[in-house]
Structure formats: C-alpha cells, structure tokens
Amino acid sequence: MAGRLAVAFGLILLAAGSTAPARAQPSPSPSPASTEGTSALVVNDAGAQTLLGMPVQTSKGEDLGRVVDVVVDRHGDLMAAIIDFGCFLGVGTRKIAIDWRMLHFPQSDGLNKLIADLSHDELRNAPAYKANEPIVIMGAPAPKPTVSAAPDPSAAKP
Fold first, then answer.
1. What ranges do the domains of the chain cover?
2. I need a labelling partner for 120 at 20 to 30 A (CA). Which of 84, 98, 138, 144 fits?
3. pTM above threshold 0.90
4. In the Cβ-directed half-sphere of 118, how many Cα atoms lie within 13 Å?
C-alpha cells in the first residue's frame, strides 16, 4: 500500500518559487458543476526531482544507500523514506526506514541527493523494513507517554 501511495503522492518534490501554475483547457462539454476545467501545475526539473533512486548520504559525505520507496500517512503526508542501506558494492544490503524530517537536500548541491541527519553507525543496527510488517522508522521522535490521572486516595477509604 505504501508503494501505491508513494507513486500517487511522493514521487515529485517541489522547491519553492520556481514554478508557475497553469490551467488546463476545459473539456469540450464541461459538466454543469464545473466550467473552468481541471487545474494543473507545470514544473521544470530545476524545481522538482523524483525521489526514487536518489542517493542518501550522511552530513560527512558517507554513502548510506538509495531511496527505494516512501511511506505516507492517511493524509498523504510523507513519514519516511525507505532506503536500500548497504555495505560495500551492495553486498549485504537491507531496506530501512528513515524519518522524513531527518532528511534534507544539501544547501549548495541542488536536488541531486538527500542528506540524513543520522550517522552510518546510528543506522547500522536499524531493524530492516519488510512489507506488510510494522515499520520501525529511525530518527522518529518517541511517542509522548499518555498521562493518566493518579487514583484519588480518599476514594479508597470506606
């Protein structure tokens, strides 16, 4: 399911300020509810990039792997990138999930790679991502503990 949602939502990432919206031409016989047509957006390659296959590195330039999938929530918000994390020449690779908020594009190199705010050592022992199993997302903040009210000691007295 994540793969289908990834194709539908997460394949193109837009950079601010480099695109101009355009309107599609209305169909020859528009429906009475809509006479303006479907809105569309034209993006050049300077303002967008596909994520699949993009290399991921640490801030020190260590190669971590390549993006092979993305995970989105029910609202379509990106949660994690699945990277093919591996050893030398792809031997011993495995897929791991990295929190999307831990990834960013380099400030000076454009949109040709992602930088992870995690080290190679932090990811070395990460649990493998497996389809149709619970996903462990590395770098995600721990969930806030639920606070339950303390029992009222006076309620226990007869």
1. 1-13+60-140
2. 144
3. no
4. 23
